[in-house]
Amino acid sequence: RRPNIEREYDAGFERLYRDYFSDSPTFGHKASHRNLCMTRRIFLKITDALAAHNKPWTSFWPVGRNELDATVKLGIHPILKVTAATR
Fold this sequence. Notes:
Elements: H1 9-21, H2 29-36, H3 40-53, H4 78-86
């Protein structure tokens, strides 16, 4: 059996949050609209709607992933999931 590859999803979430969703984001509204393929407000509305329909996502914002993956680590943050799905 091959060993699991560390993907560093936590670091990816921290960068994404800092760049687009923090109080003082690195990139402005135009860049977030271009890179997220929609406005930040709509992106968060979609993420909140998905959180309402999926029990493991119910208390995720700004942190709080409470699901475990197959390697018994915390799962990928919902914002990363929605970002990947929209691309």
